[in-house]
Structures are given as structure tokens and as C-alpha cells.
Write a structure and sequence with these properties.
With about 500 residues, the chain is of the alpha+beta class. It contains four helices and 29 strands. The longest helix is centred in the last third of the chain and has 68 residues.
Length: about 500
């Protein structure tokens, strides 16, 4: 097996020997080593914890390494191995493990100028504690190759680790009367932990997985809080972190902070970065240099990945004014037609793509468009000339309708007044005639009385006043009727 391992190293890293800048004599005078971080710890049974395999090459550059790592399979179980943030970019043997044999094996390297430093991460191992007791982890078959023409092995020593596992914090029985006394108050935060990022083999994955877990031996774990970028922390239950899938992220580097709380309120933070790469950005191939709002239709088009959503943005002064969503066809072509109203000025149009997973692209190259308005703007309101003409026409129609209605109403009232006046006139003459007849009858009776005897001066005067009042009533009513007729 060891001959095969050496062969893998020589085969993989012979390509680096011809470009090395370190002389053989310098390589022989230096050394490098493996170590674990952390190298010890106490965990409860069933808990997952993270151990980094590190290399120390402070005084010399290395470009390849291999090792076997042994662990007791009755005490430990490997959950996963991550190459995230590894110094190695090429692998003659991807990291593999066997939980039945208790072995981990890898062969990796990187091009010239290699790596030099005290804290070079090779791989990250996620272990799970299986049973009570102590688990010792050690290295074997270590080789570290210098970045030198002769590929000299500069390995000097390795430092393993020792980890203890228990059932966690409990109550102690004191004396024969079995009085239970609580352990001392928990003032310590949970154990330090590391966050492992898993993009599931796709660097454009907008929802990568986070692997993290820690323990607290005294009060036990309470909950976690997660912060993405500048957003606020949000709470996550302990059972929701195996693993935790992030919400949709845009392309770029996002700062992730995980805060672990124990049941006593103590906490510890761990931070990392998540890099999400962009899917293929769309291109804008059709973009008018000018656009006369309301009088023209805005046409924008381009190409993108087939069957993707394309989001088009209209911006001015780096502020998004409007956005639209269209879809690319099977050939990847997309097109936008828009006839909206916008304030006159210089605008920028850009686009970005989105796939069915919610992964988005970077923005496309912007195009510049000058917008003119066939109309005018009043504050936040934009009025086009066509809209103004239509609005004026509607107002004119309303006014004409109002005039017609008013004229019709007046004519109707005139007809009603005329009809009522005629009725009133007829009633007046009828009543007047009846009143006149009654008065004349009374006067006839008075005349007969005169024949029988003389009428006094006072009675004569009263008769004359009665006849005069009757005539005055007729005169006044006829005048009022005439006035009413003139009003209509």
C-alpha cells in the first residue's frame, strides 16, 4: 500500500518539479508536520464535532502531501469529510474513509509556488461520538513533498489528538438519604465549533448547506442563532441544524455568523464566508438609444440561458425605477415590450437571469437610454399629451352633457310651471266667480231690505268697500299670474 501511495504522489506532482524555485539543499534543511485542530475536547455521546487536519510548513513551501489517519471505530464515526478552504486544489486521491476499519486517507497537492505557513488546512473531518470513554487519533504513512525539483520529502513529525466522551451534565447523589444537589451554575459557553459549507458540488447553488454543531457539558445546548451578512440574527432550533439549508443567496461572498447558546444563556460565535458564483448572465442585444414615452413602444431584447427568467431593470441615479420579468425561449432569446410613462432623463437598462432553483446571475452590461416625454410632469405625476387630450375630451363631454341636462331640466320645469299656472288660473277664476256670486247675492238681499226701509250711511259705506275689495283681489291675482307666466 505504501509503495502505491508514493507512486500516487510522484505521478500527481511530477508536473510541479520543473517550475520549483527551491533548491534541493534548502529543502533538506527544512521540515514540515501534520497536526489536528483542535487536538482535544470533551463531548457528549451522539454529538457531532469538527476536527481540521492541518499542516505546518512555516519555513519551506510544500506542493503535495499524503497521510492515513486512524481512529477507534468503536468510539468514533466519520459523518463527512470536507475539502472546503483546503490549501490543495488537486487530488491524486480524494479524501476517503472507512468507519469499519477506522481509517481516513488522502493524497493532495497544489501548483507552484506551493504553500508556506503554519496553518494550512488540508481537510475537515466531521466526527460523531459513539460511546463512553477516550478516543485517540493518530497519523501514519505521512509524506510531505517540498516544492523542489527533486520532490524531497520534508515530513518531520505529526501530532494526533485525544477526545473524551460522556453523557453530559447530570445531578449527583449525595449521602445515603439520596439528596440531589445541582452542579455549580453554568457560566461557560458551549465548546468552540466550526462551520462547514457544502454547496452540493455546485458553486452556483443559491441555498448551500451549513454543517455545524457543538455541545455544552453542564447545562446543555439551548438553540442557535444565524446571521447572514448585515441582516439580523434569526433563531434555529438544535434539531434543525443537521444540516441547515440557507435561504436564497445572490452571487458574491456572504459573511455567515452562527451563535450557539446553552440553556444557561451563555453563547459562543463561529463565523465563515459563503461564496456563491453567478449563473450565466444575460446579454442585452436590442436597446434603443432614445425612447419617446407614450408615443412609442419600448423594445428591449437579448439572449440568455434557455428557459430562464430574465429580470430587466430600469434605473436612474442608481435607483431602480421599474423592473419587469420575461422568459427566454428554447433558443435563449428574450424580448420586452413596454409602453409606460416615465419622466424624461437619462436611464440605464440592465438584466439578470434566474433559474428554477432561484439562483440568479450577476447583472448584465448596462445600456444607456434617453427618455423623452410627449407631455409634462407635475411632481410625482406624469401626464402625456395623448392622456391630456383624452382627459380634456372627457371633461368637454361631461360639460356638454351637463349643459344638455340643465337645458332639458329647465324645459321640463317650464312645462310644469305652465301646466300648474293654467290650473291655478282656472281655479282662481272659478273661486273668484263663486266669491263674486256670493257677494252679489248678499248685495241683492241688502237692496231688498232698502226697499222696505232706509239703509244707513254706514251700511252704504260698507257695501262700497266690499265691492272695491273684490275688485282689488281680482287685480292682484291677475298680476301674480302674469308674473308667473313671465318666469317660465
Amino acid at each position: 500500500m505504501k509503495h502505491k501511495n508514493i507512486f500516487n504522489l510522484l505521478f500527481l506532482f511530477s508536473i510541479f518539479c520543473f517550475t520549483s524555485s527551491i533548491l534541493p539543499g534548502e529543502a533538506k534543511a527544512q521540515s514540515a508536520s501534520f497536526y489536528l485542530s483542535p487536538s482535544k475536547g470533551n463531548y457528549r455521546i451522539g454529538a457531532n464535532f469538527v476536527v481540521d487536519v492541518m499542516v505546518n510548513a512555516e519555513k519551506i513551501s510544500l506542493n503535495a502531501a499524503q497521510a492515513k489517519i486512524f481512529f477507534p471505530p468503536d468510539r468514533l464515526k466519520v459523518i463527512d469529510i470536507s475539502k472546503q478552504n483546503s490549501i490543495f486544489s488537486l487530488w491524486a486521491q480524494e479524501p476517503i474513509f472507512s468507519n469499519s476499519e477506522g481509517e481516513i486517507y488522502f493524497v493532495g497537492g497544489l501548483p507552484t509556488p506551493g504553500f508556506r505557513g503554519e496553518t494550512g488546512k488540508v481537510i475537515t473531518i466531521i466526527f460523531q461520538a459513539k460511546s463512553l470513554g477516550e478516543a485517540k487519533i493518530h497519523f501514519s504513512e505521512e509524506i510531505i513533498m517540498a516544492n523542489a525539483p527533486e520532490g524531497i520529502d520534508i515530513f518531520s513529525f505529526s501530532q494526533g489528538g485525544s477526545f473524551a466522551f460522556s453523557q453530559g451534565g447530570i445531578y449527583a447523589v449525595l449521602g445515603s438519604d439520596e439528596i440531589l444537589e445541582e452542579l455549580p451554575k453554568d457560566k461557560q459557553p458551549p465548546f468552540p465549533f466550526e462551520i462547514i459549507i457544502d454547496d452540493e458540488g455546485d458553486p452556483t447553488n443559491p441555498q448551500p448547506l451549513l454543517y455545524f454543531e457543538t455541545t455544552d457539558e453542564l447545562s446543555g445546548m439551548g438553540y442557535y442563532e444565524i446571521k447572514i451578512g448585515e441582516e439580523d440574527f434569526f433563531r434555529v432550533a438544535v434539531g434543525e441544524t443537521k444540516p441547515f439549508r440557507l435561504s436564497h443567496l445572490t452571487p458574491g461572498i456572504h459573511q455567515i455568523t452562527v451563535r450557539a447558546f446553552d440553556k444557561a444563556g451563555n453563547y459562543i460565535d463561529s463565523a465563515t464566508e459563503v461564496k456563491v458564483e453567478s449563473i450565466v448572465a444575460p446579454e442585452i442585444t436590442i436597446c434603443p438609444g432614445t425612447y419617446n414615452a407614450e408615443e412609442e413602444i419600448l423594445y428591449v431584447g437579448g439572449i440568455a440561458l434557455p428557459n430562464h427568467t430574465v429580470i430587466i431593470f430600469l434605473k436612474t441615479n442608481d435607483k431602480i425605477i421599474k423592473s419587469w420579468e420575461v422568459y427566454s425561449d428554447e433558443k435563449g432569446e428574450w424580448f420586452l415590450e413596454e409602453d409606460g410613462l416615465f419622466k424624461p432623463g437619462t436611464y440605464k437598462i440592465s438584466a439578470r437571469a434566474k433559474d428554477v432553483r432561484g439562483a440568479v446571475s450577476n447583472f448584465s452590461k448596462e445600456c444607456i437610454i434617453e427618455i423623452f416625454l410627449g407631455g409634462f410632469a407635475i411632481g410625482p405625476w406624469i401626464i402625456g399629451y395623448k392622456t391630456l387630450t383624452l382627459f380634456t375630451l372627457i371633461i368637454l363631454i361631461i360639460i356638454l352633457f351637463g349643459i344638455f341636462y340643465l337645458f332639458w331640466k329647465i324645459r321640463k320645469n317650464q312645462r310644469i310651471i305652465k301646466r300648474e299656472t293654467q290650473d291655478l288660473k282656472q281655479k282662481f277664476y272659478k273661486e273668484y266667480k263663486e266669491l263674486q256670486d256670493d257677494i252679489l247675492k248678499e248685495l241683492t238681499i241688502l237692496k231688498k231690505t232698502r226697499a222696505e226701509g232706509e239703509i244707513t250711511v254706514e251700511e252704504k259705506k260698507r257695501e262700497e268697500e266690499l265691492l272695491k275689495n273684490l275688485e282689488d283681489v281680482k287685480t292682484v291675482l291677475e298680476k301674480e299670474l302674469k308674473d308667473i307666466e313671465e318666469i317660465k
